[in-house]
Design a protein that fits this description.
49% helix, 177 residues, 8 helices, mainly alpha
Length: 177
Amino acid sequence: MARTDTAPVSELKIKSQLLKKSFRREPTGFHNWMQSLPTPELWSNTPPKLQEVQDFIAKKAGFHNWRHAVNYLSGGWHPGEDAGTFWYSNRCTPLLNIWCRNEEEAKAEHRKMPHLLILPYKKQFILANDDYLTAIGIQSVWQQKKKAIAAEKSIRYMDPDWQDLSLARIRTLFENL
């Protein structure tokens, strides 16, 4: 069973609380922020429920809903399942990266290019280069981790380095919140 008390999940909870509180302080800004989501919904003058805000935060982070985000960020995800678009940004569109259909293919490609980072995207995998990592806002954390994991040649899902990268990604996504 997945742990729900991981640092990335806690960070998303904090962001949800901040967004919920922002409704009381500045309803117009809150509604404008919600409009930036792919499927915006607006509330009347009543504050949204925490679960509604958590679902919006999860969608903004690239997941289907809050439960999907918690499952992925707390260790319940398995290769082949949908990881959402957490590790993707529209800023990555012009970049050339190696896309792999499954984990085995990604690992085989990674052996040829161990300087790249394997990241899940929906049910596929990306071998991300430095430009890609910069585009998603985790380049500086990756540079710190790269030396520490030199012997491993990759970061494993849910290990402390992976959680640090996940935190950096969440903070990048919600830096204006």
